[in-house]
Automatic annotation (TrEMBL):
It comes from the Eukaryota. One of its GO terms (cellular component) is small-subunit processome. The lineage of its organism: Eukaryota, Metazoa, Chordata, Craniata, Vertebrata. This is rRNA-processing protein FCF1 homolog. GO terms for biological process: ribosomal small subunit biogenesis; rRNA processing. Residues 41-63 are annotated as: Disordered. The keyword Nucleus applies. Residues 84-183 form the PIN domain. It comes from Chrysolophus pictus (Golden pheasant). It is found in: Nucleus, Nucleolus.
């Protein structure tokens, strides 16, 4: 009986040590160092997220509203008028050549007034990069009847240049057949778009008192 009791006691002691060992093998959660701990560098401490201040609901909120151009006080752009200044892009010149249209004369036939085609440095650089295949377009772009507009911004992307220019100055008409550029121009109020349709120039978003009838 003594042997059995001793065996049972040793078995109980063995079971208890196994339970304790199992508890010691269980994973422990790692403690996070506080941001105020001295072991953290000052640079890392500066990265700590700043506490948001509670907004006072009774305080007056200030917000910046973009200034609306005075030329759009009426239903149409009052800065538009003869002689019309028309910004031309690369595709418009190429499609005019394919349709065998003279740019200046076709513009005057569309608007019934004197037109001054304008070409920016970005558009001119884009035509020059196309090479000898578009030498006719380059020759038309260098026509003395075209007004050259210098670009002071960085980069040579022509679409961004035209969008930025008509956003700042509402006295231009944009001549293009590019769908993406037309979509961006339509978001700018007061800027008409000239395009090619049925082997002639047509105008979009122009007051009815100006130009030829739309088809």
């Amino acid at each position: 009986m003594v042997r059995r009791a001793g065996g049972l006691g040793s078995w109980v002691l063995g079971l208890g040590s196994w339970v304790l060992g199992l508890g010691s093998c269980s994973p422990r959660l790692k403690r996070m160092i506080s941001l105020r701990d001295q072991r953290i560098n000052e640079k890392e401490r500066a990265k700590a997220p700043a506490k948001k201040k509670k907004e006072d609901p009774s305080a007056i909120k200030e917000r910046e509203v973009p200034q609306h151009p005075s030329c759009l006080f009426f239903q149409y752009n009052t800065q538009l008028g003869p002689p019309y200044h028309i910004l031309v892009d690369t595709n418009f010149i190429n499609f005019s050549i394919k349709a065998k249209l003279d740019l200046v004369q076709s513009m005057m036939d569309c608007l019934y007034a004197k037109c001054i085609p304008c070409i920016t440095d970005c558009v001119m650089a884009e035509i020059e990069k196309l090479g000898q295949r578009y030498r006719v377009a380059l020759r038309i772009a260098k026509d003395p009847r075209f007004e050259r507009l210098p670009c002071m911004h960085k980069g040579t992307y022509a679409d961004d240049c035209l969008v930025q220019r008509v956003t700042q100055h509402k006295c231009y008409i944009v001549a293009t057949v590019d769908k993406e550029l037309k979509r961006r121009i339509r978001k700018i109020p007061g800027v008409p778009i000239m395009y090619i349709s049925r082997h002639r120039y047509n105008i979009e978003r122009m007051p009815d008192d100006y130009g030829a009838p739309r088809f």
